[in-house]
Write a sequence for this structure.
């Protein structure tokens, strides 16, 4: 992407592996300083931070451990970024987990873990970032939801509920931040604004998916009109597009990246 994000600071949860790593890299390639949060794989996270620095130069890239389901830790994560860099322009709520089981057999702990991480984490991080963004009159919040939040999936009651919740959260936060901006007299014609949008990827070729048996992968591809899975970069390019100052008129929207799978 060739968006100009020079001088912008981005926080990407789950930003050190998989789709999140592609997002961090795409934002860094456009000039942003990226803070990537991760759950526990410190070795991998530090490797990724070093790779970014090697590739794009020393722009203060960081990998920070933070379990987003912990409200206090999430709030501190955001406050630390603001204190250190003096600004936070872009938040990408990408951290997400699965604990798949058919609903009748789903353990309450697995229900709670997935809702707390995927939906709770996105809420806590956004909640901490919004007052700062409204005060500055600019900001971009981008949620990584899922196609399965739109169409459901057998064995994913917890996951699809959390991802559907992110779509509702996106729309509510989009309305609330616009209202707050208006109240503060910051909705001028040339305002960069604070926007909140959501992306719903279909199956993406991450390490986990690539390790699936060929037969399972072939079955997955057979229900996708373009007959392949998404590359992580194909999700990242929408994030970088939405993160740009020029995307200020796009808010409260759901962006599908699924090879046409939801047309069936
Ligand atoms: N892959 C797909 O096909 C697909 C499709 C649609 C939507 N999505 C969504 O896209 C997002 C990324 O998926 P992915 O497949 O790239 O995932 P992944 O490879 O499993 O995600 C890894 C990243 O998330 C971090 N993470 C995990 N739990 C966390 C927590 N509680 N707090 C903070 N960070 C946490 C990991 O940190 P560690 O390295 O420390 O574990 C790592 O940085 C998820 O929200 C997922 O639901 C994925």
């Amino acid at each position: 992407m060739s968006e100009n994000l020079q001088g912008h600071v981005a926080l990407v949860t789950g930003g050190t592996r998989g789709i999140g790593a592609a997002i961090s890299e795409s934002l860094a390639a456009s000039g942003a300083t990226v803070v990537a949060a991760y759950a526990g794989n410190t070795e991998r996270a530090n490797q990724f931070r070093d790779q970014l620095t090697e590739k794009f130069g020393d722009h203060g890239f960081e990998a920070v451990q933070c379990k987003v389901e912990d409200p206090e830790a999430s709030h501190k994560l955001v406050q630390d970024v603001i204190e250190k860099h003096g600004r936070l322009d872009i938040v990408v709520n990408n951290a997400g987990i699965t604990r798949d089981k058919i609903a009748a057999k789903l353990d309450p702990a697995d229900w709670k873990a997935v809702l707390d991480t995927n939906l709770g984490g996105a809420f806590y991080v956004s909640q901490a970032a919004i007052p700062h963004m409204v005060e500055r009159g600019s900001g971009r919040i981008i949620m990584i939801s899922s196609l399965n939040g739109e169409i459901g999936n057998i064995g994913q009651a917890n996951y699809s509920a959390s991802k559907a919740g992110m779509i509702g959260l996106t729309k509510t936060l989009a309305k609330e931040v616009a209202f707050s901006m208006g109240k503060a007299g910051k909705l001028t014609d040339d305002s960069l604004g604070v926007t909140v949008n959501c992306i719903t990827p279909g199956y993406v070729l991450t390490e986990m998916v690539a390790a699936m048996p060929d037969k399972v992968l072939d079955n997955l591809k057979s229900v996708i009109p373009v007959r392949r899975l998404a590359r992580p970069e194909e999700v990242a390019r929408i994030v970088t597009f939405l993160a740009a100052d020029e995307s200020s008129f796009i808010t409260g929207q759901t962006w599908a990246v699924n090879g046409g799978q939801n047309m069936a």
Summary: Residues 13-14, 16-20, 37-41, 44, 66-69, 94-97, 117, 121, 144, 146, 201, 203-204, 206, 208-209 surround NAP (CB under 6 Å). The chain has one domain: 9-203+231-257.
